[in-house]
Amino acid sequence: MPTEELKASADQYLMGTYARQPISIVRGRGTKVYDLEGREYVDFVGGIAVNLLGHGHPDLVLAVQKQAAQLIHTSNLYYTEPQVRLAQMLVDHSFADQVFFCNSGAEANEAAIKLVRRYSHDKYGAGRFEIITMKQSFHGRTMATLTATGQEKVQKGYEPLVPGFSYVTFNHLAELQHALTDKTAAIMLEPIQGEGGVHVVSREYLKAVRELCTQRDILLIFDEVQTGMGRTGTLFAYEQLNVQPDIMTLAKGLGGGVPIGACLAKAPVAKAFGPGSHASTFGGNPLACAAALAVFRVLLDGRVLDQARRMGEYLSKGLSECKDRHHLVRDVRGLGLLQGMEVEMDAKTVVADCLKRGFLVNAVGEHVLRLIPPLIITQPEVDRLLEVLSHIFDRHAAQAAAH
Question: Which CATH architecture has domain 3-56+303-402?
């Protein structure tokens, strides 16, 4: 089906919840994807930070094929080995003691919110249930997680929102301290606000937040849906920030493209969930867990993580040099292979120009480009993107000067 025909059918049969790019992707290999017409694109979106190992990684493909032929789903009424092995692997390589599996980042954050309320209710009674989150955060699209999200544009039209959430400015300690009350049960934040414009948490701020939480027995939740699984150069971003949470959520890259989410917690918190307190029919099914185990093994081998660290530093340096050369670039920020470039012009224009030149990039908001490629991205591919961006900025600066 030609792209225009496919687009017309999509407009007819799909709800219009996405503003899609005008291409139809039919296959991928490594860091590249190909459209219906056979055009090649270097993928600096990675399925929105999902395809950690790129497209068609042989270990991931084999794991999915083998598991699909053996057992895809049974529900959580029974034990399955892939789920238990994945839970053990997550625990062995993190702060956590136990794991709850679900299907997405929103579901993982929903589980974290419910776990906080259950824990606090059991320990302190019904009056201590509020969660403080950050302005410009993003935690999902369910009713609870869009309420937790500190962006009015995400919440608009869905009122009344779920009670029990308040918002403070990211990295502003005094404002957070002022917002704490006897009803505060948890503080929830992303180490890097991806959807909010790629803003990195201050180490000093995070250390102070951890101390506040410990002093007041307030739970600290890290939403690592976007930053987890090697995105920042370590398995989890908190490792290089030297602060441990009480609860952490994962999804996106965990399954390398197969939907899976996870809510991890320390034992005293995790025990608040008993039989019947929370559930997910598809959560942690054998197929998704087999995929996640394959991703995890590749990351633990070390070579991909080393590549992510090197390329994260290289990309950051290259974007900063681009900023120095082009007045259309306001700022560059990020950590590892989650980088943001704030521009004077409409970021969607840059996205469209990159698409024409064979690169997939992403815009968050009106003025920020977000670069979240597979962790196997190479130096020549980064160099080519930097050349394309430089050419785009030169052309738009010349056009602006001519007018």
Answer: Alpha-Beta Complex (3.90)
